[in-house]
Amino acid sequence: MTETEEREEIYLRDSHIINCSFDQWYPNFLQCTFPSRIIPLTENVLQWLESDGIVMDGVVSRQDEYDRFDAGEPEWSDDDQGENQAQSPAFPELDEEIEQVIVEFGGSVFPKLNWSSPKDATWMMTSGNLKCKKPEDIYLLLKSSDFISHDLYHAFEKCWPVSDKRKPTQVCLVLRKWYDNMKPSMEFRCFVKNQILFDEKEDIRGRIVQFFVDKVMDKFPDPDYVFDVYITKNKTVTLVDFNPFGEVTDGLMFEWSELHLWDANSDLLPDMRIVGSNAGIKPKSLENRVPFELIDLSEGSALSNLVEELKREGNLQNNTS
Question: Staple partner for 224: which of 118, 120, 245, 268, CB 3.0–4.6 Å?
Answer without folding.
Answer: 245
